[in-house]
Design a protein that fits this description.
CATH architecture of the largest domain in chain A: Up-down Bundle
Largest interface: A-B, 24 and 24 residues
Shape of chain A: globular
CATH class of the largest domain in chain A: Mainly Alpha
CATH superfamily of the largest domain in chain A: GntR ligand-binding domain-like
Number of strands of chain A: 3
Structural class of chain A: mainly alpha
Distance between the termini of chain A: 30 Å
Helix content of chain A: 55-70%
Largest sheet of chain A: 3 strands, antiparallel
Oligomer: homodimer
Strand content of chain A: under 5%
Radius of gyration of chain A: 18 Å
Number of domains of chain A: 2
Chain lengths: 232, 232
DNA sequence: ATGGCGTAACCTGTATACAGCTTGATTTTA
DNA sequence: TAAAATCAAGCTGTATACAGGTTACGCCAT
């Protein structure tokens, strides 16, 4: 059973409409990214409406947002289907993300605060604690999500931040699909290595290097993947 | 009276739902970008529903898309308001667009076809014909839109193409706001110059230079704007 | 047995009534 | 007179019934 971040959050009584929209949107987005809904899954408006105790209308709004994010395809008369990504597009997005990562340090960089350091320290610790927990890929994925969130906070150029997140969530589930094939030790070591590189750059208040390391790690991922696909 | 591209297009009888959505979306997007609906305008769901002869539901879908594109802000109980952009965000987007333009030639560049040359030739001609038509800023804007469309066609990396367009439309109306302040001759000469530079690069089948010139012109725009804002 | 057709089940799309929110004008009250 | 409360108008948000599209199953004819 996949543990979802939002599951534990109690729904407040006086939740506003926009808040509820965000809550459900993030919930479904995470379910897709963590493969609770693997590619090809048909999502039902009525079923989800019932689950969240509302009508189809707000669910449809969330669906259209997910469609715009590229996570689902809405087909009239058929259903709303979790999308898959072909390898060519996957590589294109990774190439793009590498460039966007480099830009993080170059376009309106911001100051790194102790809070940021605290966050990255926490992520490093969480990852270290997973060392012997072979196969906990879902927890690795949650850490990756939080790292992306941290990098977003470090991105001073708001539109750059926005499209970086867009591209991250668009391929997150595909990355997650391949993760187990790398083997636990390699996957875990890779994540830990990236976190520690980024942490070191953050301690030096060197955002440019943060982006640089991120970019290198994306390339590393591409290389690993290429090797994996070439072998069999 | 602003001449809109879609206005002349006859609505086909057997138009599918998705086609109608695109048609209305493009129509409203252009109205916003060409300042038919200047920033601050309150758009009415019922009025537009009546204009297009449909109910509020599909109009609402278009509104939510426009909101996601950053062109309107939907406020419960108030209305759907055409957004404005502060100068800081404007500059951030231009900085970003400069980088994205450079990438066009570097990420999966495509071959330039005679059709592409034909399109740019046409744009150059249209611009030349405007030389003595002082004050035809709206036609200049339509040409700028078509140029952006052409550059999208030349972008092999699909996600890059997508976010480039996103950023273009987000600031297009702001650019259009400042255009008259440059004076007709300067605005017209600038546009023509960009088109001819890009055309020359295209004839050489040199996409990298196409992106480079685009980037340079975005910088030129920023410089002009900075001078304009510094003077008074 | 098999090919084609019709139909039922299920999906999204649309229209519409109603609820909830915001705002500003109007009325009431100190 | 001024300030506060009230109300009305207009907006978006939600729920729901119905329309339209797609698919797959089953039936029938060949």
């Amino acid at each position: 059973m996949v543990k979802l971040a939002e599951t534990a959050i109690a729904v407040s009584e006086d939740e506003t409409g926009a808040e509820r929209f965000d809550r459900i949107y993030c919930e479904l987005r995470d379910r897709i990214c963590l493969l609770t809904y693997p590619p090809g899954t048909v999502l039902s408006e009525v079923a989800l409406a019932k689950e969240f105790g509302i009508s189809r209308t707000p669910i449809r709004r969330v669906f259209h947002r997910l469609e715009f994010m590229g996570l689902v395809a809405i087909k009239n008369g058929v259903g709303t289907i979790v999308t898959d990504i072909d390898l060519k597009t996957f590589k294109q997005i990774y190439d793009l993300r590498k460039r966007l990562a480099e830009m993080m340090g170059e376009l309106s960089p911001i100051e790194i605060t102790p809070d940021h350091i605290k966050t990255i320290d926490d992520l490093v610790k969480r990852t270290r604690d997973l060392a012997d927990k072979t196969g906990a890929f879902d927890e690795l994925a949650l850490i990756a999500n939080d790292l992306q969130q941290l990098l977003s906070d470090l991105t001073g150029n708001a539109p750059l931040c926005e499209i970086t997140e867009l591209m991250y969530y668009r391929v997150a589930r595909i990355w997650y699909t391949f993760l187990p094939q790398f083997g636990w030790d390699k996957a875990h070591a890779g994540q830990l290595n990236e976190l520690e590189e980024i942490r070191a750059a953050m301690v030096d208040n060197d955002i440019r290097s943060v982006g640089h390391y991120r970019s290198i790690d994306l390339q590393r991922m591409l290389t690993l993947l290429g090797r994996l696909l070439a072998e069999p």
